[in-house]
Design brief:
By secondary structure, this protein is α/β, with parallel strands linked by helices. Among the domains are: 11-285, no CATH class; 524-643, no CATH class.
Length: 643
């Protein structure tokens, strides 16, 4: 700040992640966007929340607002496993240290700021605030909690991806400090006008008709009101009033009904306002913006990132950065709608793709980074092969409220054209300095196998599949069937396991023809709502029959505001409101997870006892019989178990 001649920052961002100036790190994107709007931006990564709070004092009071982000991952998912044990390392901290991030950093950082600067506006953002914008189930505290805005004394939440809301917030607040509002504050040394909480809320459009600043409520924000009378425009016929937090506590079924409404609005092009009462106050969720245009997304990715960690981390390893440093994100959004995934209520289902030119500019920049040896680790996105896919008739899409475009069946309006993505792959591979580009993101094989009733699209899918397998697999292709039981897969909103069989046969055939020895690595989940121990036993038998020793496995972790977590918390499927079995206790979860590791001698007795307890001793012979294939025996001897 001294080198730039700044006496005060306009916006100070507090991030619970280490600072990496890269478009995959939220604080960097928001900081660069605000800088591009002409604001003086300062970022304090991982401030020390103990003692005298010197990190929070370091840069003084911002002229406009404090922005608080817990980081790229939900802080509790980042810190703990599904068994509520501490993870081996914090992926977004230098050297994986655990002591640089508090639990629930949004709440902790807000408390620190409020103690020091009681009248400075505070804006919450990032995945933690986005997924906690209304009443939600917290797995780590095992209870329903109200909107994060009521647990953290902040002024607003910017939910979802923040590009459009950040730019509009900068525009509104810059105008507010130039308005001459009588309740602005002024810096004692420079005389510069500074926002107060009252002026901030007026500029956000959160006050009633006597407001001096006449703004409509800002899209994609969450605000709170002490009484119904304070809500702008009152409660109108188009508004959706959710069941109150207190009623949902008394009757879990009501929380499931709330989630169904929230998911529909999160996946609607033109959504309605949501309102919920909690602790005697009203929480108002304003509708999201329409999806970004390609030009808007390009702009966010084309900002002048260094793509490097801050120099303060020299000589230290940031695990998440090591994973993505040579990768490129091609698009935003995912229309899969998987029940356990948070993308639906955070990014939404509509795909916004970057232009080919923007992608090539980023790849070219990567080739000049220190340590780059010619291999891109990923050309992907939330689902790697959804790039540029959208509805043929966009007017139908704008009226649609389906959470998934491909479940239970592929929407006939969806155009699943793989040709634009093939063009990207080939253009990237032709650049000087690029040896290989691999696809590390998940691939939806149901899109590859679907009959599009269009020979051009079918041929493009076949061509993409061959291109992917022959040129973009680094020896192992990861895909996510998630389960083998079609009943469980239906609850997950995933395709039938029969499609995995088809894809594996195709994968093996293409590799055999090309004399390649590549592996397909399937990903599975245990203890998902609706999954019984018997389903896991069948999974073990089925994957054994396919000669797999499973490595990519996970015990279901309930994260806020997903369909699966709603089932977990309430015992109801929010889509049908029918009861769903849930394995909740550690013993029940372990009884499912152990079936992944049937090939480990120490698990055999426990599995046999569980099968007898279930009344299915017939499965013991199928799982532990002496009919192992030669290939499986060889794998069991030579391939070590990797967790």
């Amino acid at each position: 700040m001294e080198l730039r001649g700044w006496t005060q920052a306009d916006v100070i961002l507090l991030s619970a992640d280490a600072y990496v100036d890269h478009p995959s790190f939220g604080a960097a994107v928001i900081g660069r966007l605000l800088e591009d709007e002409g604001l003086r931006v300062a970022i304090i990564p991982q401030p020390d929340w103990h003692g005298d709070l010197r990190d929070f004092r370091r840069l003084g009071r911002p002229r406009l607002w404090f922005g608080i982000s817990p980081g790229c991952m939900d802080s509790m998912v980042n810190k703990y496993t599904a068994a509520r044990r501490l993870r081996s390392e914090d992926a977004y901290s230098p050297d994986g240290r655990h002591d640089l991030r508090p639990e629930y950093p949004t709440i902790v950082y807000t408390e620190c700021v409020r103690r020091l600067y009681p009248d400075v506006p505070i804006v919450l953002g990032g995945i933690e605030a986005s997924l906690r914008r209304v009443a939600h189930y917290d797995y780590w505290q095992q209870r329903l909690r109200p909107s994060l805005l009521l647990d953290a004394d902040a002024d607003a939440i910017l939910y979802g991806m923040g590009e459009q809301s950040t730019v509009e917030l900068a525009t509104r607040m810059t105008a507010a400090v130039e308005s001459g509002h009588p309740q602005l504050a002024y810096d004692s040394q420079t005389g510069e006008a500074m926002l107060t909480r009252k002026v901030f809320l007026e500029a956000l459009g959160c006050t009633t008709s006597d407001s001096i600043i006449h703004n409509a409520p800002m899209h994609q924000t969450v605000t709170r009101y002490a009484t119904e009378a304070e809500i702008p425009s009152g409660i109108g016929p188009e508004d959706i009033v959710l069941h109150s937090y207190e009623d949902s506590l008394r009757e879990p079924r009501l929380h499931a009904e709330n989630f169904r409404q929230l998911e529909r609005q999160s996946n609607s092009w033109t959504a309605h306002r949501l309102l919920q009462q909690a602790r005697g106050q009203w929480v108002v969720v304003n509708p999201p913006y329409p999806p970004l245009t390609t030009e808007q997304l390009d702009h966010a990715f084309d900002l002048p990132y260094t793509r490097l960690p801050h120099p303060k981390y020299e000589g230290k390893r940031i695990p998440a950065y090591e994973m993505i440093r040579f990768s490129v994100n091609l698009h935003r959004g995912c229309f899969g709608g998987c029940a356990f995934c948070t993308i639906s209520v955070h990014q939404g289902k509509f795909i916004t793709n970057r232009s080919k030119e923007s992608i090539l500019r980023e790849v070219e920049a990567i080739t000049h980074l220190p340590g780059f040896r010619g291999n891109l680790s990923d050309l992907g996105g939330p689902s790697a092969n959804m790039y540029a896919m959208r509805g043929r008739n966009q007017q139908l899409c704008q009226r649609c409220q389906r959470p998934s475009c491909i479940h239970p069946n592929v929407c006939p309006n969806l155009c699943g054209d793989h040709r634009p993505l093939l063009d990207i792959y080939r253009s990237v591979d032709s650049l000087p300095g690029i040896k290989h580009s691999f696809i590390g993101s998940g691939v939806r094989y149901d899109l590859l196998l679907h009959d599009w009733h269009d020979e051009t699209l079918n041929r493009a899918a076949e061509e993409y599949t061959r291109e992917l397998i022959l040129h973009h697999v680094s020896g192992r292709l990861k895909v996510a069937p998630e389960h083998t039981s079609d009943r469980v897969l239906q609850l997950m909103r995933k395709p039938s396991f029969s499609l995995f069989h088809q894809f594996k046969a195709l994968f093996d055939r293409i590799n055999q023809q090309a004399h390649l020895r590549q592996q397909i690595i399937p990903y599975f989940i245990s203890s998902h709502p609706g999954c019984h121990p018997e389903d896991m036993a069948e999974l073990a038998i089925e994957t054994k029959r396919l000669d797999f020793q499973l490595e990519q496995v996970q015990d279901f972790t309930p994260t806020p505001l997903t369909t699966a977590t709603t089932m977990w918390a309430t015992g109801y499927d929010p889509n049908t409101m029918r009861p769903v079995y849930v394995a909740r206790t550690p013993a029940e979860k372990q009884a499912q997870r152990m079936f992944f590791f049937w090939y480990k001698p120490e698990e055999r007795r426990r599995i046999e006892n569980e099968l007898r307890r279930m009344g299915r001793p017939d499965l013991i012979g199928r799982l532990f019989g002496l009919n192992l294939s030669t290939k499986t025996k060889s794998n069991m001897k030579s391939k070590p178990y990797r967790k």
